[in-house]
Amino acid sequence: MSRLLISIITVNFNNKHGLIKTLNSIKSQKCNSFEHIIIDANSTDESTDIIKQYEKEVTYPLYWTSEPDKGIYDGMNKGIKQAHGEYLYFLNSGDVLMDSTILQKLPLDGSKYIYGNIKYVLSTSSYRNISPAATLDIIYLLKTALPHQACFIHHSLFQTQLYNTKYKIISDWIHTMKSIIFEGCSYKHIDITIAEVDGTGISSNQEKLMEERIKWIKEQFPQAILDALSELYEYKYSELGSLIPTISQTKKFKKRIRKIVLLLLKINNLFSSNKRKEKMISKIWEPF
């Protein structure tokens, strides 16, 4: 077998129909330099029978277990502990790879976070094509998240931090923030649609997602920094931010003009309606 590049980790609980779709999409891959790890949370809906049949049909390395866990991130952590690949990829039950050549197309060049695009399916007739930004900063990641179904994460990033099981929805976002923003790891966007994602899962709960993000952010930053981040966010996503799109990217400009921009922003906000400001603030917590 060629060098093991990817560990695909699938977490499942009582989702046999979604599991079948996921397993079929993995089984169809023409690339063979991967292993598959399935963590089932003691399902009672015939999921384990499906996994046993799948085990008989595949030739690539497969590990699976079925036992109670403490939630999706506990299951993902169990998968991480069993993984041998250079990169880890999480494709949970209900999500599918876009086609049989996806794993062949990946430029896995040693960058720590490699991420592509996804097709986010809301219903049988509604979906969104999600393409994350090529350049990531803290303001962008406060507003959005890298969908884990689009991310190939270097194994080394899990040596010192697994997913935080205290949170039920945002732990993959926390891992991204810590790795890319706090630790400054390398990252790269690839313009490939990696997966079709089930948009009806737990992370679609906007109210809960917002609650968890606020809690984590307040734990990480003192109030003075939170106030500064809030000002910078409002500037970036206001009309003023678009007035100077090119020159405002230079470090020299940012240093000299920041106070002027913030003053103009405060004046601008005096003439903004409360409704508009509330709408802008709520967008911080969209999942993509």
UniProtKB/TrEMBL annotation:
GO terms assigned for molecular function: hexosyltransferase activity
Keywords: Transferase
Annotated ranges, domain Glycosyltransferase 2-like: 7-102
Short name of one Pfam family: Glycos_transf_2
SUPFAM superfamilies named in the record: Nucleotide-diphospho-sugar transferases (SSF53448)
PANTHER family cross-referenced by the UniProt entry: COLANIC ACID BIOSYNTHESIS GLYCOSYL TRANSFERASE WCAE-RELATED, GLYCOSYLTRANSFERASE
Protein name per UniProt: Glycosyltransferase
